Amino acid sequence: MRINVEETLFCLVDVQDRLYPYMTNKDEIEKNLVTLVKGLKTLEVPFIVNEQYKKGIGETIPSLREFVDPDPHFEKTTFSCCKNEPTMEAIKNAGKKVVIVAGIETHVCVLQTCIDLLEAGLQPVLVTDCVTSRKQKDTDMALERLIQAGVIPTTYESILFELTVNAKNPVFKQISSLVK
């Protein structure tokens, strides 16, 4: 299945400053997330930003916040972004078929969001090098389950080039320089 930029929405899940320090591979994942976000912004993919119980877990981490501040933000207490009515309403209103998903924690909020997107008739695309949990085993098991369920796995570099399509795309050089 070809993923087209016109049919795509990005959902950032709970990358918040009071929880993020406890994640495995957090430095690499943060670097990857920043690259993904910059690339998707360059490609003009619409964003939905989710934050779990901000009072307790905080805001989106500063390295991402600067890029996503203008985007719609949804606070939730449900683990799945889709179980939060305003978030699901925004996803439906976007009119896209594909939802690129990245964030934390892979085995809880990311997993449940992807499962619910599938149940809603949408195609989640999980950026596997832009998700993490506190324990690597939880991430590994969640990725296995999600792939078996029908979620499309990808990496940030792969999805950015797939959405760019062609070296003649006016943003190709920007995307190329981001992933170097």
Summary, kept brief:
This protein is α/β, with parallel strands linked by helices. The protein is built from eight helices and six strands.
- Compute the CA-based radius of gyration: 15 Å
Order of helices and strands: EHEHHEHEHEHEHH
Runs in which pLDDT lies below 50 for 5 or more consecutive residues are none
Given helix and strand content, the structural type is alpha/beta
The major pleated sheet works out as:
6 strands, parallel
Give the overall form.
globular
Counted beta strands:
6
Q: What is the strand arrangement across the widest sheet?
A: 3-2-1-4-5-6
Counting DSSP H or I runs of 4 or more residues, the number of helices is 8
The average pLDDT value, as a whole number, equals 97
Helix content: 40-55%
Beta fraction of the residues? 15-25%
First and last CA, distance:
26 Å
Keywords:
20% strand; 8 helices; 180 residues; alpha/beta
Task: Characterise this structure.
The chain has 180 residues and is an alpha/beta fold. It contains 8 helices and 6 strands; from the N terminus they run βαβααβαβαβαβαα. The protein has a 6-stranded parallel beta sheet with strand order 3-2-1-4-5-6, sandwiched between helices. Helix 1 packs antiparallel against helix 8 (172-179) and helix 5 (106-119) runs parallel beside helix 6 (136-149). The longest helix is centred in the N-terminal third of the chain and has 17 residues, at 26-42. The chain is globular, with a radius of gyration of 15 Å. The relative contact order is 0.19. The mean pLDDT is 97.
